[in-house]
Design a protein that fits this description.
Layout: E1 6-12, E2 25-30, H1 36-44, E3 62-67, E4 71-75, H2 86-102, E5 106-114, H3 121-132, E6 137-142, H4 149-163, E7 173-175, H5 184-200
């Protein structure tokens, strides 16, 4: 799928104020500093569609971007950043939970995981919550360029081993690098296939 247009539509913390139309949505979420903004910019071939920052926790709202006039890319706040106040964390958690619970337009979530680190409880718990609530999702391993190919394989295998302790099968996943454009086509073609299947249904 070629991204011909990508436009910012709105930011808010109230799920009720999200777009009212039935355009399909794909939500991107992960721990703060996982490289979410860089990944979104890489996928859309836009250098600054999503604001990148050296300060984790920058995204604090639900951000909607319309892609090719046909689907929304939704940039959600990162979770698990210690410097965000407890009240802010509670607010984020509330509207993130509401978003996933109430947005009927959501086709799939993408949970971003830094491939350099061993499986983190906060990521595993969040994916468990998605699974228990019947919310489709894929895992996107980020920053693959920071490791050698064999190390990437080993880290993915380690993640699979941990997840298969509680999951019947490993969720769909992608290995990416924003700086090297690794995984870009795979993610976009997956979204394209889901959109096509919705049209056929």
């Amino acid at each position: 799928m070629e991204i011909k247009s990508a436009e910012f539509i709105m930011s808010n913390s109230d799920v009720a104020k999200c777009p009212k139309n039935s355009i399909p949505e794909y939500a991107f979420i992960g721990r703060s500093n996982v490289g979410k903004s860089s990944l979104i910019n890489m996928l859309t071939s836009r250098k600054s569609l999503a604001k990148t920052s050296g300060r984790p926790g920058k995204t604090q709202l639900i951000n909607h971007f319309i892609i090719n006039k046909t689907w929304y890319l939704v940039d959600l706040p990162g979770y698990g950043y210690a410097r965000v106040s407890k009240s802010a964390k509670k607010t984020f958690q509330k509207f993130i939970t509401q978003y996933f619970s109430l947005r009927e337009q959501l086709v799939s979530a993408f949970v971003l995981v830094d491939i350099r680190h061993k499986p983190q409880p906060i990521d595993l718990e969040f994916m468990q919550w998605l699974g228990e609530n019947g919310i489709p999702f894929s895992v996107i391993f980020t920053k693959a360029d920071k490791l050698k190919p064999k190390a990437v394989e080993n880290h993915v295998a380690a993640y699979k081993a941990v997840m298969l302790e509680t999951w019947e099968e490993m969720p769909n996943y992608f290995v990416t690098s924003s700086s090297k454009d690794i995984g870009k086509e795979d993610v976009l073609e997956y979204i394209h296939s889901l959109n096509e299947n919705m049209i056929l249904d």
